[in-house]
Amino acid sequence: SPGLYIVATPIGNLGDITLRAIEVLRGAAAIACEDTRVTGKLLNHLGIDTRMVRYDDHASDTDRERLLTRIAQEPVALVSDAGTPLISDPGYRLVRTARERGLPVTSIPGASAATVALTLCGLPSDRFLFAGFLPPKSKGRKDVLRELGNVAATLIFYETGPRLCDSLADLAETLPGRDVAVARELTKRFEECRTGSAEELASHYRTHPPKGEIVLMIGPPGEKVIGAAEADAMLLSELAAHKA
Ligand code: SAM
């Protein structure tokens, strides 16, 4: 039936797609995708010949309106090059507008590099904060690391091979002593997950330039991070003890 179907696709291993995702892609009137060559390969592998329309980061308001008109009339799937749409990928504005107009939106879950990396690396998984890509320049990166460094959660970032060593060096400087994990080429032949301090990982990757796609994770701060109210209470009890 008409509506927008957000469909997760594999992040490397072509087997990682759900039965429902295949059914929806096959039954859709159109598949909106970032790159018709990339999605074309997946569809070809699955034996699906649904037509594709381009919808990427450069999509204009007019492109979106055209797609929304179709969504009101027929089932339209949204996929990205890999993994879950909207997760560091296009789709947010489309979903938001579709919902504002009361159009049906359904999400067909599947792989996302962030959750695959988290479940693999052995860092605490009870609380995590996904923060997309780290800024490309050192200054911006250190600002983000400092901003999020006190959050009592495992931090998850997407990263690129050429920038990994610089990011690890900035991490060693801004948040020393933290457990760090680097997950690379998830679900693919050369999948790797390496843990250690930022210094250890930086020195490893300096001599082994990392190829492929990367997720960088930072374990939560070791010492308990206390809130203002808790700090006040501690100070007051110290003062009381002093008076006595
Ligand atoms: N929407 C995707 C998802 O759900 O994972 C992420 C898209 S984002 C543009 C691409 C980034 O995701 C890559 O630069 C890398 O950091 C991460 N990534 C995607 N596939 C990966 C894989 N197989 N192994 C490690 N990281 C991956």
UniProtKB/TrEMBL annotation:
PROSITE patterns in the record: RSMI (PS01296)
Record domain Tetrapyrrole methylase: where: 4-202
Record's subcellular location: Cytoplasm
Keywords: Cytoplasm, Methyltransferase, rRNA processing, S-adenosyl-L-methionine, Transferase
One Pfam family per UniProt: RsmI_C
GO molecular function, a single term: rRNA (cytosine-2'-O-)-methyltransferase activity
EC number: 2.1.1.198
Gene Ontology terms: cellular component: cytoplasm
Catalysed reaction, written as an equation: cytidine(1402) in 16S rRNA + S-adenosyl-L-methionine = 2'-O-methylcytidine(1402) in 16S rRNA + S-adenosyl-L-homocysteine + H(+)
Annotated SUPFAM superfamilies: Tetrapyrrole methylase
Family: Belongs to the methyltransferase superfamily. RsmI family.
NCBIfam families, per the entry: 16S rRNA (cytidine(1402)-2'-O)-methyltransferase
Function of the protein: Catalyzes the 2'-O-methylation of the ribose of cytidine 1402 (C1402) in 16S rRNA.
Protein name in UniProt: Ribosomal RNA small subunit methyltransferase I
Species whose genome carries this gene: Novosphingobium marinum
Organism placement in taxonomy: Bacteria, Pseudomonadati, Pseudomonadota, Alphaproteobacteria, Sphingomonadales
